[in-house]
Each structure stands twice: as structure tokens, then as C-alpha cells.
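Page 37, top half.
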Amino acid sequence: MLINILAAAAGDAAPKNQFGFFEAMEQGGVIAWSTFGVLVIMSIGSFYILFTKYFEQQKVIKQGRDIRNNFWRANSLKEGAGKLDKNSAWRQIVDDGLAAETQYGKMDDDLEAHDWLHGSLARSEAGINAKLAGGLPFLASVGATAPFVGLFGTVVGIYRALINIGLEGSASIDKVAGPVGEALIMTALGLLVAVPAVLAYNWLQVRNKKIAGELTGFSTDVLANITSKGAVRPVVATKAAAKPAARPAAATAAPAKKA
């Protein structure tokens, strides 16, 4: 009896879907799979750049908080630089500023000396910004080209559907469903790859601009400190908590009442 029930269930089972994703890709052949592979590579590269740049930015931002809290409490730039990581972007600006200071005394014109220091720090800052912006052109390229890569697969799928119609002499659904499905899949994949890349590019760009502004401010402070021989430095708020006010002395005991 159990065998009869299983046989009846197998007979009533739904027919196998012949127009799924893999079926459509197999009908598309080498061109469909190649287009799909290109889109997968674009997507993997976009997410790799997104996460690596995010962690790189977070490291710079965290070091910037330490700069505001600890660096300017040092007695000199050299002492403050010793508190920073050697591979820090902020350490690079200080080191480049100190290196430019060694050339400061060789210039007779004070204006030229100031321009030399300013240019050296600006060059250091530009190098850091260029490093932070590395990989973002790839995101921009993916966001701009991925829809067209998907569109290429769409065109090929529609072309194959038209060929099937011409060969069969009729536009029956079983002849065009596969190529049309392949075309729609390629369109969707192109958008699925492009949209995250564009969003990641814009988001990382905003964060880079914020970091660039902080680097510019720090570079200006370093320049002012060097040219003033350490006299000019930003005000650093102390973290010492305010001590509670001392309690008033206990009142003297009231005199005893007279009998």
C-alpha cells in the first residue's frame, strides 16, 4: 500500500522547470557564461574594495581621535610623533614637516621658507589622500559599465530569441522563453552589480572628504607650530574632572540655653 501511495505522489509531482537560471544560462552558451563571469568578478572586486577601504578609513579616523587627545600634550613635535604609529597617516605628516624643517634654515628668504614648509606638508597630505582614494576608480567604473555588460547579455538573448522565431516560423513560448529569460537575467545582474558599486563609491568619497578636512587642519597646526618654534599649538581640553566643591565647615554647636 505504501508503494502505491509513493507512486501516486510521484505521478502527481509538478513537472521539472526547464526555464530556470541555470537552464537559461546553458542555453546562452559561452557568451552567457562569460558575461556572467565578468559581472561576478566586478561584484567581488567592488565588495573587496568596499571593506578594505572602510577598515583603512576607520583606522585613520581612530588615530585622528588619539591625535586630538594625546599628540598636542607633548612638549615638542618629535616627542608627539613618538606616540604615533609608524605607518600612521598623521605620523607621515609630522615626519615630513620635521624633514622640511631641517631645510628651513638653509633658505635666506623667510617667505620662501614658509612656502617650502607649506608645500612639503601639502605634498604629504596629497599623497595620503591619493592612497585613501585608491580603488575608488574601480568602483566608479563598475557602476558605470556593469549595466552595459548586462545589456550586452540582454542583446544576445533577444537575438537568440529572434533566431528561434525565424527558424520555427512562430513565436511559441517554448522557443523564446529561454533566450528572453536569459536576457532578463543579464539585465538584472548588471543592475545588481552596478547599484552597490555606486553606493559604495559615494559613501567612501564622503568619508574621504571628511578625513581630508581633518588632515588639512592638522597640517595647518603642524605648520604653525614649526614656524613659531613651538609657541603656537591648538588648545587641548583637559580631561580632568571637576572636583566637587568642598563642604562648608560644620557649624559650631549652639550655646546652651540658660536655665
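Page 37, bottom half:
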Amino acid sequence: MRHLASRATVLAAATLAGLAAAAAPAAADPVELRVATLAPPGSTWMKILDKGAAKVSDKTEKRVSLKWYAGGVQGDERDYVRKIRLGQLDGAAVTSVGLSMIDESIRVLELPRMFASIDEMDYVADKMWPYFVAKFEKKGFKLTDRGEIGWIYFYSKSEVTTLDQLKGLKLWQWGDDSIVSAMYKKLGLNGTPLGVPEVDSALQTGRINGCYGSPLTTVALQWNTKIKYQTEMPMSYGIGATVMSLDALKKMSADDQKTMLDLAKKMGKDIRKGVRKDNVEAGKQMKSKGVKLTTTPPAMVDQFTKAAEEVWNELAGKIYSKDELAMVLKYRDEYRKKHPAK
């Protein structure tokens, strides 16, 4: 009897140990997040993103790593969003054009001739960002902190000081950019739809003789070597952000998610700071290499601004709601009231 009791005790202990082992969560496998961007290797954006990826790996003790596909090797931004939805990528660092393929209403933050200063744009975007974070989550994406492109100017091989001269150019038009498309149509501009990776060769061959971008993107993508002039008047202010699939985030623990998203927020701030500084330096670099900044006459500014305001209202209810446009104007005017022009 004593022998049977002993055997029963051993079996019971073994059974309990087995149940405990089965109930205990298995050690999580390392998670590698595949993230794409058009930003070229070595650019301001990639230096900060690579540094952030190293910090994510370090802070999570290598449980989470980010593999960046830079320089458009995964295609254009439309390809990134499609691949995220198919599970072939886990995220992407994109411009507002890429963001618009998830929820187009975010483009209300990038309307042409909307903002008079960076501080004004920051104020409005910071007020509205939580609103867009919630909209993106409903569509299965985590929208991280705001990134930056900067003031967007026209660049060309010939000088542009009138709207008629601008109309005479063969201008690049990002095929997926509905706002630029609307502006071109309103102003009667001659746009050639192309993806970002196609612009350099199109400038080289003469398929186009004008494009648009920030000073930093123009230098980073080497378009500056193929143009001679930049307009003084900015068309708009370009923003961006990194988006991640919510399904991809669920592969990691809650603590690791928080760590990565906290670091992503810091990366957004670092990118804004770095890009603003480097846009100034890129402008100086282009000037030293012979790119001429042409004065935009008040008449051309007025024509462009009038057309832009008409486009704002025409796109309300199509790309963004009338309420969302009203929100932007409300916060912009709120900022201007607090900071009257001197």
C-alpha cells in the first residue's frame, strides 16, 4: 500500500508539473518588422530611422528588430500599403501621399498655400494628430508621430516668374497625388504622372523639365543636378509618418509595443528637427552649385493662392470632409489670433 501511495504521489506530481508547463506561456519568438521607405540610404531620414531601429533592438533585448528597405527597393508608396495589407511588409515610412492610401482625409493637413509658417503648421497638425491616429487604427494601422518633408517648391530647367511660364513646363505629377492633380487642373498646368523612382530618369531624358519637392528631397534624390531654378514661393508643406500594421504589432508583447512606439515618437521629433536643419543646408548647397532662386511676383502668388483656396473647397466632401477642413481653418485662425503678424 505504501508503495502504491508513493507511485500515486509521483504520478500526481508529474501530472501537475506537466499541466503547469502547458499553462506557462512559451517564450516569444523574436519579431522582425519589415519596413519600407523611399528615403535613400544615407539620407537624413534613414540616418535617424537606422538609429531608431538599433535602439528598438537594444531596448527590447533583441526581441524586436526592424529591417528597413530604403531607397524605393520595394516600389512606390502605393506598393508599400498594398504589401502591408497582404502581410508582405509590416510597415512603411511614407509621405502624406502614402498615408492617403490608408485614409485620404489626412491630406487636409497638406493643402496648398494653407500655412504661412512652420510654427502655424505645427500648431494645427499637433491639434489634429490624435484625431487621425484614431481614424487609422479603425483601418488596421498604427499611425506614429508626425515626420517631415518640408516646404515644397517648384524646380525647373528654365526660369519661372509667371503662371504662363509654369504652364509651359512639362511638370512631374505624382500619379497618386490627388491634391496636386486638382491644383494642376485648376491652374491649367501640364502634368506627367510618374512614380517618385521615375522622376530622375525623366528629368535626364527630357520627358519632364520641372518637378516639385523640398530642398532636401531634391538633393537626396539627385534631382538638383538636373534642374537650374527654384521658385521662391512654396506650394505647400510636406509631412509624413511611419505606419505599422496592427496585426504586426500584436506579434510582440505589450511592453515591447510600448517601447517601440515610444521610440517611434522620439524618431518623429528627431526627424522634424533634423529635416528642418538639413532643408536649410540643402538650399545653400543647391545655390552654391548654381541653382538660382527666382523671385515669385505678387501677381503669381495671388493667382496660385486664389486657385488653392478654390481647390480646398472643391475637394471638401471628396478627399476630406467639410468638417475636417473647418477644423484646419479653425486651428490655423486660432494660432494666428494668438500670434498676430508683426
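Margin note: The longest strand covers residues 141-156.
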